[in-house]
Design a protein that fits this description.
Number of helices: 12
Structural class: alpha+beta
Number of domains: 3
Shape: globular
Distance between the termini: 9 Å
CATH class of the largest domain: Alpha Beta
Oligomer: single chain
Mean pLDDT: 87
Number of strands: 20
Radius of gyration: 25 Å
CATH superfamily of the largest domain: DNA methylase specificity domains
Length: 394
């Protein structure tokens, strides 16, 4: 085992943020201006969907007076979503929001790729450094005082190269999973067309006409318990799958009261109706009981008319999401009302066509599950290498 020297992060380089940009300075086109969302997209090598820009003149003024991100600099999200790490790898011109993002620059004798992986390995600790009651926030002062192990520069580069290879495998497998999800969506559209324009002339019905119940979860805040019956809210289904990993719990007594009105069963569909992630469906694929919060809509399909798996994919299409977009209520937090969801227009192809789709979907799902298993192995290997690298064992 190699003995590692530890240094305060603030001793190795400058940790700062950007010059403040006011809302009045935004322009329709110019130099991209990134917030937490865009830095997260960059960190995860996702397509950038920025909406804000500053003028070329303002950018050049800032560049001269205060500097702008350069190749090798590191940006870390510091408010809300804490700990997304992006290393500037090319000379793309952009600026970013002050306070929301921390800027690490001028680090001497520190390989930026090594530092990015090191900080990634400490993500949980970085989040624990954050403070704030309304939202998480990572102060510059705490990051400056954080101690990190630092081997010689050549050793840093060797470690970073090993981690790069493992990270590459991990990302490719995640991309393969994403492509299987896209394949399912494209297969649906190829077989049935756009549910709204209905180019293939399927029978069209309102969602209410092909379901036996459309309701939502309890409207009052429940009394949570340490253990008990799972209590599902929007965050537990936004991935398109029902997950119990991070859910809350309620008592059996409260669950019995709630399920009189809202009783999820296997094969039902859950649909997000409140918040920024509204309009996302998930299939109930478990027999165990659970309760729902008001932010989640429960949809019970008439299974002699429409298969749950088919309806779930229909609700996931951009065409159905656009109906949700047009129906959304609320100036602050987006809120889909139940009567609006009931009026959604859905295609109802013959049962035999739906079965054809389900057979294809089953094969795609099997491939996705296999890829997910491989992806988890890659994730475990990568995390193991991270921990070994920064214990001096790699």
């Amino acid at each position: 085992m190699k003995e590692l020297k530890f240094y305060l992060l603030g001793e190795l380089g400058e940790i700062t943020s950007s010059k403040r940009i006011f809302q009045s300075e935004y322009v329709d086109d110019g130099i991209p201006f990134y917030r937490t969302k865009e830095i997260k997209e960059l960190a995860n090598k996702e397509p950038i969907s920025n909406e804000l820009f500053i003028s070329r003149e303002r950018y050049e003024e800032i560049k001269v007076k205060f500097g702008v991100p350069e190749v090798g600099d590191i940006l870390i999200t510091a408010i809300g979503t804490v700990g997304e790490i992006y290393i500037v790898e090319n000379e793309k011109e952009f600026y970013f929001k002050d306070g929301n993002i921390l800027w690490l620059k001028g680090f001497k004798d520190v390989d930026p790729f090594f530092l990015r992986y090191l900080l990634s390995s400490l993500i949980n600790e970085l989040q624990n450094l954050s403070s704030g009651s309304a939202y998480k926030a990572l102060p510059i002062t705490k990051l400056k005082e954080y101690k990190i192990p630092l081997p010689p520069l050549e050793e840093q580069r060797r470690i970073a190269a090993i981690l790069d290879k493992a990270d590459g495998v991990r990302r490719k497998r995640k991309e393969a999973i994403r492509l299987t999800e896209e394949l399912l969506k494209s297969t649906f559209l190829e077989m049935f067309g756009d549910p709204v324009t209905n180019p293939k002339g399927w029978e069209i019905k309102k969602l209410e006409e092909v379901t036996t119940k459309i309701t939502d979860g309890v409207h009052s805040r429940p009394n949570y318990t340490e253990q008990g019956v799972p209590f599902i809210s929007v965050k537990d289904i936004t991935t398109g799958e029902l997950k119990f990993d991070d859910c809350k719990f309620i008592s059996e007594e409260d669950h019995k009261k709630y399920k009189k009105r809202c009783n999820p069963d296997m094969g039902d569909i859950l649909y997000t109706k409140v918040g920024a992630t509204y309009g996302r469906p998930a299939l109930v694929n478990v027999k165990s009981e659970f309760s729902l919060y008001v932010s989640v809509c429960l949809i019970k399909p008439q299974r002699d008319l429409i298969f749950p798996e088919f309806l779930k994919e229909a609700l996931a299409t951009p065409a159905l999401k656009s109906q949700a977009d047009r129906s959304i209520k609320g100036i602050g937090v987006p809120d889909l009302h139940l009567n609006m969801i009931k009026d959604f227009i859905v295609p109802v192809p013959p049962i035999y066509k739906q079965k054809e789709f389900l057979e294809i979907a089953s094969k795609i799902q099997f491939s996705k599950e296999s890829l997910t298993s491989c992806s988890q192995e890659s994730e475990n290997l990568f995390n193991s290498l991270l921990q070994r690298a920064f214990r001096g064992e790699l």
